[in-house]
Amino acid sequence: MAVAFHDVNSASGWKKLDDYLLPHSYITGYQASKDDVTVYAALSNAPSAEYVKVSRWYKHIDALLRIS
């Protein structure tokens, strides 16, 4: 993974991830990958609506994992 997200369960971690996802659909590349699963697994709970981009990404990855 080229991008590292540390302490994603803190307010600053959520903000950093939200800012990163502004121009990106996925953590790396143009489709869901193991990097998305890694970050998803690191989250202790679903993001609050305050983090719009993370919420969108989280719901999308969650849905993909449910159908696989």
Automatic annotation (TrEMBL):
One of its GO terms (molecular function) is translation elongation factor activity. Keywords: Elongation factor, Protein biosynthesis. GO terms for cellular component: cytosol; eukaryotic translation elongation factor 1 complex. It comes from the Eukaryota. InterPro entries: EF1B_bsu/dsu, Glutathione-S-Trfase_C_sf. Transmembrane segments: none annotated. PANTHER family: EF-HAND AND COILED-COIL DOMAIN-CONTAINING FAMILY MEMBER, ELONGATION FACTOR 1-BETA. This is Elongation factor 1-delta 1. It comes from Senna tora. The lineage of its organism: Eukaryota, Viridiplantae, Streptophyta, Embryophyta, Tracheophyta.
